[in-house]
## 1
Amino acid sequence: MESDYQHPLNFSITLGPVDTSSLVDKVEVKLIRFFLDNKLQPGDAIPKELDLSESLGVSRTVIREALLRLRMTGLIESRKKRGAVLANPDLIALLQKTIYPSMMDEHTLRDIFEMRLVMEIGMADLIFQRINPSDMKELQEIVKNEPEKSEKYLFEIDQEVRFHGKLYEITGNNTLKRFQQLLLPVFQYVNESGILKKKIKAKRYVSHQQLVNIIKSGTPEEFREAMRNHLENHFKRLF
């Protein structure tokens, strides 16, 4: 006797996902693909709205909205007498528009400080390669008035900004320097929010003065380890 049982259909395979993206979303993706396929470079003009509208078969309103999105992300910009051209996107400026420390939860703040730790440990080679006598003199001036037992003091934003900002400057990497400046409001917020109330339990605390001494007569490997211990102290105050 033949069974009436039928295996249930796997609708995820049979039907597949529904494309819920809007028409503007699709046009935005197509425009980016067009730029890439045609190997456009910053400064190259892009087609006019009317030409794009006719080519893609959509209204100029849709094209205008898609182009507006690309302007907001820094991918295109308007030039006098040239119209829209491909731009060199300023990623730091784009991030700056979305940094609101008071809207970040503890996990996000932790992620940001972890990024800082990774960056400042990773800067060692650049610092040792590019530091000059003038930089060293300025670092020594910055740490000159640092308390002898600075591990007993809470995060001092002015001292942190001056010292660590100088390290970023020494790297000669403008994107790194701007990223550090981007995160300063986060550090300021953390300093003023009351998060830094936990007792300090650092076992191998390293001060700014000790970091400078290592830069002067140590190695990048020693600096990386010292910076790790220096920043770990801040982590313990936070979390």
## 2
Amino acid sequence: MASGDVLIRVEGLTMGFGSTVIMENLDFAVNSGEVFVILGGSGSGKSTLLKHMIGLYEPMAGRILIAGRDITRAQGEEREAVLRRIGVSYQMGALFGSMTLLENVRLPLEVHTRLPRQAMNQIALAKLQLVGLAEFAAYLPAAISGGMQKRAAIARAMALDPEVLFLDEPSAGLDPITSAELDQLIRRLTHTLGMTMVVVTHELPSIFAIADRVIMLEKETRSIAAEGDPRVLRDTSRHPWVRRFLNRAETEDVTA
């Protein structure tokens, strides 16, 4: 898929649990090759939206198309084909503590391919190399830092060469220097591999460092309050809450 083409399209998405609606009638698109960030205040449904987009939750209404296929309705082999296009890195990394980094990254290959073990090891090592962890391939997750665990989780998410990576709060719990290094990795992977990223985060420095476009979920209206370049929205949005959020301001007067 060429850079700039629509890779993911969300149409009329309403999500919630039981009779409680979290967000309704969401419409947006993610373009191939961009870093697309989902923003919003606490409880606005950022991570819930991501889980709908990867097929973990069933929507109340609407659909989610990935490369033209509806992940909300796909079954069997069609669903498997859609899921093969995506990779996911969860907030805490979700690495298996009893497995080395190489074994963690190799796992998706063991589950979804019939490659020889040597080939799987070579692929897993190459993914660790992409995130700067090849020399730590034999380490257990407990033996490395939190930032390295996040990078290893990204390597595992890339094991099957997905078209799009979904990252849930990748900078959560990291110090500013480690967070900035992770931001650089995300941008480098996008530029060198042409990979599409969908990122949930509320870290303003990361947002301005990595995002090509954002959507901002507003809890009160249960809708998208703004969409676009976060730097432009910060400086020119006419929505008071959007400007307060992106300027980290306590009041509506963000120019004082």
## 3
Amino acid sequence: MEPDKLSEQQSQLLEDVLEHLAAGTEAALGPDLAVLAPAVVASLLESLPLVERKRTWSLVPAPQQGEVLAGVGDEVRATLIEGLAADQLIEATKDLEDDDLTDVIGDLPEEMVGSVLDAMDADRRHRLERVLEYEQGTAGRLMNSDVVSVRPDVSLAVVLRYLRRIAPLPVDTDAIMVVDDAGGYLGILPLTVTVSTEPSSMVADAMVSEADSVTAGTSEDDVAARFEQQDLISLAVVDDNHRLLGRITVDDVVDVIRQQSEQRLLYQAGLDEEEDLFAPILNSIRRRALWLGINLLTVLLASWVIGQFEGILDQVVALAVLMPIVASMGGIAGNQALTLTIRGVALNQITLANFRWFARKEVAIGLLNGLLWALVIAIVTTLWFHRWDIAAIIGAAMVINLLAGAASGVGIPLLLKRLRIDPALAGAVILTTATDVIGFAGFLGLATLVLL
């Protein structure tokens, strides 16, 4: 479906739900919600204010609730779980895949976690407890431990009989994992090969032994990069001894990529990627106050720099009129370089090996853009104020700040990454401070030297 049509349908669905809720006829929504995909219902619930969300959630059929819980953000999930009793939660989550269930369990009160685990059979409880031992954001937490595996010393005929006996296969099974007697990972047997090769052939002859794998501690960002680069549908997860633990499927990686995209956009504004759009006002204030406070400190620093040149500003009013131009142009140039650098770092396209080439290119762009727009603003200033000396000052300051902006935009993300700080979270704040301070200091400092 085309994106515009999909967006229109989602908007129409939201309007219909709000109309029914306002009219008190929400009971009529039950059959409609039952036929919607869980991801659509999850998106709908995230788009509703808190009271309306809870009323709509009560209409979602029990068999659908587990997948909906897995599809919403952490904060929204917490608001939905509040209204569920332990037996309802057990019923909703009993058919969830292990990787989705770990996400839901992470937001449960401790007493509910125990109830959900106690309701499982011993095998599944053991698998889930093992997954929960891994850190959030790693392949271990992302994997599904329900995998189909065979040994290399059996025939494909035996494999086919085995598959028929355990059907249905786990969702998104594109290949069977091949392991040795000790559970060591050896490779994969694609299903396409299984059904198209002579049944008498041995697994050892038909398998792909060089198939990639990741350890449980690998970051989900690295996992997503492998899926993108190798066009994978699934990927084996192994422990430090190369024993098979589980697999990661493409549907989970799509979720990771979507979250990364949303995270970068929200971090640029100092927001949390899991923030509920309709969370209580006080909760949102607490989240955002920190970054507003940091921004205030940076603005005060820039104002202090301006205050050091009070004498020249009192004598030459034109400087106060032109001053914001220098800082703004430097900020824009810096943000362009910052955005490209963060993207390159996130995609592993920029490393220490090629950083110098990339940095030289961005600084050269900053210099050439600085010279171009310095000429333009110098001409405008001369025509406006009839002062060639002020025109020369602002032109020189423009070159300095665009150079500083480009250098900061390239250097800040690499520095923050080395300090283990997310560049998307803090980069824009630091960059704005740098270009404001350098822009104001450069422009007013040159004016002081030339005009006084």
